[in-house]
Amino acid sequence: MTLTPWRLRMVAVFIALVAWAMLALMAPSAFQQADERATDAVWQLGASTTAERRVVVVDIDDASIQRIGPWPWSRQTQAKLVEQIRARGATLQLHDLVYADARPGGAELARALAQGQGASPAVVAQVFALNHESRQTSGQLAGALPGQGCLPPAAHAIGYVANADLPGIAAGHITPRIDGDGSVRKVPALVCYGQQNYPTLAIAGLIALSGEASKAAPLRAEPGIGLWEPAWLVTLSGMPGVRIPLDVNGDIRVPFHKARSAIVSISAADLLEGKLENPEVLRGAWALVGASAFGLGDTVPTAQGGAVSGVEVHAQLITGMLDDKVPYTPRASQALQLAWVMLAAIALLAFCWTRSEPAHRTGDKRGSSRVIWIPIASLVLAVCGFLLHAGALLGYGWWLGWSHASAAIVMIGLSLGLAEHARSLAEKGRLFRNLASYLPAAVAEKIALVEPTGEIEAERRDVTVVVADVRNFSAYCEVRSPEDAARILHRFYTTASAIVEAHGGAVEEMVGDSLIAVFNGSRPCVDHTVQALDAAREVWLRCSEELPNVPPQGLEPLALGVGVESGTALLGSFGPAQRRVHSVLGQVVTMAIRLQDLTAELAYPVLVGATAAERLGIPFERNELALKPLGTFLLPGLRHSSKVFTLRSLMQPGGDAERHSLRYLRQQGQPVV
After folding, report:
1. In this structure, are residues 324 and 57 in contact, taking their beta carbons and an 8 Å threshold?
2. Which of 175-184, 354-363, 534-543, 596-605 has the least mean pLDDT?
């Protein structure tokens, strides 16, 4: 069954979607990583460089290690750091540090941390082991939410490292969710261990600041309801304005809205030694205590670089919570991606339709250019998908993903491009076959590959021309129906063309009831004179048998006359660019036509010119092609007489043809041979 253009395009779209689905099933992580890397680029390009004063990092940097001493510092020094932060007016301290080992002075550090509970609370860190990580347990867990039983969005832990000698101090986990490329882009909001739920450091800080830690339900996690809501939504009873969206796994996506240069950081050594350039930098701010010194192992790859201090992740997360800009994936994200794929597919199909007119009708190259432009258009739409993803992320906080939809769109574009290419090839093949049915195949191929021109495009060739004509056909047409005449002419053209092609020649023209064939023209021939004469003989024998045996009353029977001559001819195309004609010109064509006309007078069915006979040689070794000279004739329209020959194998001694020939010679005053 032949596919229509629209059916072919729909099949192409279906194949592309099947291929995309198979690829998505076989390599889901590749699509996820593509989405994440693209999101990293969005964060890097759209990050704000305005200084963030609400969250200040107290950095245990290389300068602090050099001036205060190697890490870990004594508990007394760490207690002094806590006191200095509180003295500078910080409203909350979040320590991105785990005090895992029991050391002298631990009680002093615990007192320093506990002094600010209520007015300027402090929260320390603890780490959980997720999935197949270490099952080690160390220290004393703290900061569990009231109640028993794992909340639905909580991540399950199999081990932990907690603080050793800080009883009663609020804690939050700093457990990251590591992506396949090793980067940190998400943090579990809650981790469940021993049927108790532990919030992340940022949420634990919010709970401590609100003073709701001791209440029965300081935190609620509820599934999203609307299409534009996240999978889960965390709210705090003490801070009604804070809404923290989670994904289906209960993770918070870290918003990297701030450039690294926008995060205000002070050296811990400067704070301990009272050398701050701006003593008021911590007043009213949240202090994040962390380490960036080389060798302390608190660097992770993130969207903003391959070696970023872990404390910066929490700084980004806290500012996102304060600004209500924590990104999330809305529940309608898959429907949105599907809608985008459908719209893009419709656009590509419309693009195919607008450029589907054949080139010979539109006068341009649309038939071939759409093969290139459709894939390019799909790439443009794929880029638009990325821009939509970026716009939704920066404008609405929606993390939609773009790789799945863009891959489907590109595959649809490529599939449609291949389908259009196949259709174009099929159309060109059909046009070429149609053209070749009117012209020799070699000529049709040449014409199909070049632009039309208004100049003469022809070349001289040494050829042998065969002209065959159905005699008395005009009179026959007067008394017979057009359909009957067409059937006779169709059989003649079909049989004669097949014979000419089989003998190495090419039919150059079929006009009226005549056929002109050229040997060694568009198709090279080794011995074109012999091949032409052999074809002329077979044309007469076979085509004569196909002509009606009984003519209409009062008319002479249909007969076939064939003229053959060799010589130089001009073969090519002529005429204006918008209406060319392919033809063969020259004296040799005129001679062949006149010889064919003479067959009616001499009653010999095949007449051969002098040049062809000379090249053939007399006598000829093949009896069926042996020639007999008929005499010298002045052909109509020519100034000089020439010798005329016929095939002996088609003669009947003493027959009508011989008597006609002798009578014609005497009438013309020519010598009888």
Report:
1. no
2. 354-363
What is the pairing mode between strands 559-574 and 457-471? antiparallel
Contacts 24+ apart (CB under 8 A), 215-224: 215/146, 216/146, 216/147, 217/146, 217/147, 218/145, 218/146, 219/145, 221/151, 221/152, 221/153, 221/189, 221/190, 221/246, 221/250, 223/152, 224/331
Q: Which residues of 593-621 are buried (b: 16+ CB within 10 A; e: fewer)?
A: bbbbbbbebbbbbbbbbbbbbebbeeebe
DSSP for 30-72, written as a single string: HHHHHHHHHHHHHHHHH-B-S-EEEEEEEEE-HHHHHHH-SSS
What SS3 class is residue 301? strand
Higher local confidence (pLDDT), 449 or 268: 268
The phi-psi region of residue 579 (left if phi > 0; otherwise alpha if psi is between -120 and 50; otherwise beta) is: beta
Signed CA dihedral, 496, 502, 505, 509: sign only: positive
Q: What does the pLDDT look like over 574-596, one tens digit per residue?
A: 878 777 777 889 999 999 999 99
Q: How far apart are CA 625 and CA 534, in angstroms?
A: 7
pLDDT of residue 262: 95
Distances (CA, A) of 251 to 132, 186, 227, 628: 18, 6, 19, 104
CA atoms within 13 A on the CB side of 489: 20
Contact 647, 620 (CB under 8 A): no
The 8-class DSSP code of residue 74 comes to P
Tens digits of residue pLDDT in 625-668: 888 898 888 888 788 889 999 998 876 544 454 555 555 555 55
102 has pLDDT over 80 = yes
Q: Is the pLDDT of residue 509 over 80?
A: yes
Give percent of the chain above pLDDT 90: 60
Adjacent-strand bridge partners of 565 = 465
Q: What is the mean pLDDT of residues 465-489?
A: 88
Amino acid letter for position 220: R
Cα 246 to Cα 243: distance, rounded to the nearest angstrom: 10
Residues 6+ apart with CB under 8 A from 597: 469, 561, 563, 635, 636
Q: What are the backbone dihedrals phi and psi of residue 123, each rounded to the nearest 5 degrees, phi first?
A: -130, 130
Sequence-separated (6 or more) residues with CB below 8 Å from residue 598? 563, 607, 633, 635, 644
Question: How far does CA 388 lie from the centroid of its chain?
Answer: 20
What residues are paired with 92 via a beta bridge?
A: 286
